[in-house]
């Protein structure tokens, strides 16, 4: 008899946590409409398959879902989340660091500063909804 894969409940918990953290960030920046929430659900479904294939990857799901949603929003609506740190120059989105690691954070790559943990944008201050000149969310 083969031992059960460690991904079962741990993977589901990681997926639920990732969903909740990304939704919190979207809500904090007033962009959590039904279409955007659907993007989160699509990413979680995709990452569910991914973590079933690589159970050890459950620890990285939050950052990956954040990046998935950020990419989907860029394609459909514009940059998100906008940097609340830089007030000059063109608006730019925060990045997720580490790209593949535990404890992901939103960072301003231009200023080289950590803005907030993924899931904590509401605690970081600033506005940062969507970029001007794009359809916006």
How would you describe what is shown here?
The chain has 137 residues and is mainly alpha-helical. The chain is 42% helix and 9% strand. The chain has helices at 8-28, 34-53, 61-76, and strands spanning 95-97, 105-108, 113-117. The protein has a three-stranded antiparallel β-sheet with strand order 1-2-3, with helices on one face. A hairpin with a 7-residue loop joins strand 1 and strand 2 (105-108). Helix 2 crosses helix 3 (61-76). Residues 1-7 and 126-137 have low confidence and may be disordered.
Descriptive keywords:
137 residues, mainly alpha, 3-stranded antiparallel β-sheet, 3 helices, 9% strand, disordered N terminus, disordered C terminus
How far apart are the first and last residues' alpha carbons, in Å? Answer: 50 Å
Give the overall pLDDT as a whole number: 85
Element order: H for helix, E for strand: HHHEEE
C-alpha Rg, in Å?
Answer: 15 Å
Number of helices: 3
Beta-strand content? 5-15%
Overall body shape: globular
Structure classification: mainly alpha
Strands, total number: 3
Q: What is the topology, as strand order, of the major beta sheet? A: 1-2-3
Q: Strand count, sense and closure of the main sheet?
A: 3 strands, antiparallel
As a percent range, the share of helical residues equals 40-55%
- Unreliable stretches (pLDDT < 50, length at least 5) are 1-7, 126-137
């Amino acid at each position: 008899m083969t031992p059960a894969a460690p991904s079962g409940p741990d993977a589901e918990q990681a997926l639920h946590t990732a969903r909740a953290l990304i939704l919190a960030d979207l809500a904090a920046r007033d962009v959590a409409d039904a279409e955007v929430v659907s993007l989160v659900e699509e990413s979680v479904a995709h990452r569910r398959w991914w973590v079933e294939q690589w159970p050890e990857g459950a620890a990285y799901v939050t950052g990956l879902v954040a990046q998935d949603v950020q990419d989907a929003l860029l394609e459909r609506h514009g940059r998100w989340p906008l940097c609340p740190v830089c007030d000059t120059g063109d608006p730019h989105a925060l990045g997720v660091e580490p790209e593949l690691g535990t404890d992901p954070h939103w960072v301003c790559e231009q200023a080289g500063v950590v803005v907030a943990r993924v899931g904590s944008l509401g605690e970081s201050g600033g506005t940062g909804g969507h970029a001007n000149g794009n359809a916006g969310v």
